[in-house]
């Protein structure tokens, strides 16, 4: 069986982000307090104009600019305007009102002189800096007006977006439901951290990296535990996950073709149509993807390799964009590669796209200078943790020298 190119596999996987039939991705209303990181499913319209009136941008004195066009000019103080407590009267010729930042500009005033440019003696205030009409005034509607679209649907909400919505008097937002992701680990050798693993055992780590990537992408993640290397148990675990109605089921381990690699045949036996199996990438060739054939909702199943670096790289390349696309975020058709400069000579590549763990060693005209780490073993998490990014080599790339351009893929942070 020929290996599927990474770009083709990614395109097929993203096509599966579209629900079957006409049913859109479900949405829900959430309080602003719960909306950070969620994907907006409907535009946010301002429910008020902000500022609601002309307000002061500084502490000082509100007046008619004509009364202090030439200085010094002494005016009579008739009151004050503070935020939330506007002056109830009108600024008449020869008068001024003490005003504070955020306070409503009194009727009749068209300028503000900041307090540093004044002298006060009782109820008389002398302006030593000439007033200019409109200066230090924030005009009504200067930020936004009632009915204005402030946030468009299809964007991930940042803390500053929530502040904007709040200032527009919007207390709830309609957002895409979080994709429900289930993690199933397989392997007789696996034990939980802290369980006192023997020399023949492997401590489970993939759920933490893959689950962390999924959560950061916006998913709700459930760890369904470890399945033994037993066909009956594997099929039962997969069946239970399928029946639970998860949007994505992610398996780790058992994705290859060895005697104990039971995930692919178990998926097929439970009605999953595997359209992707074996990808031309390193690390992660055994990756597989399919959908439950009889499920109108289209439960998606992503089978990741068991080696922890392979699982993490494949989750970054395939799972993260799938989760983002399900929520309605715009996802690039290909890999979101960035330019960089090689900091070391590298050998020619073979037929698989290579994702090398690499470090940044400097800058060249603003571009990072990157160097592959000396060990690229797909089981070594210490190397992955040390890496700054992934150096991506296209299939059949020739040897390259230090100083030549290259492509990189950022890691999750």
From TrEMBL:
GO terms for biological process: Mo-molybdopterin cofactor biosynthetic process. GO terms for cellular component: cytosol. Its cofactor is Mg(2+). Keywords: Magnesium, Metal-binding, Molybdenum, Molybdenum cofactor biosynthesis, Transferase. It catalyses: adenylyl-molybdopterin + molybdate = Mo-molybdopterin + AMP + H(+). One of its GO terms (molecular function) is molybdopterin molybdotransferase activity. It holds the Pfam family MoCF_biosynth. Catalyzes the insertion of molybdate into adenylated molybdopterin with the concomitant release of AMP. Belongs to the MoeA family. This is Molybdopterin molybdenumtransferase. It comes from Ancylobacter tetraedralis. The lineage of its organism: Bacteria, Pseudomonadati, Pseudomonadota, Alphaproteobacteria, Hyphomicrobiales.
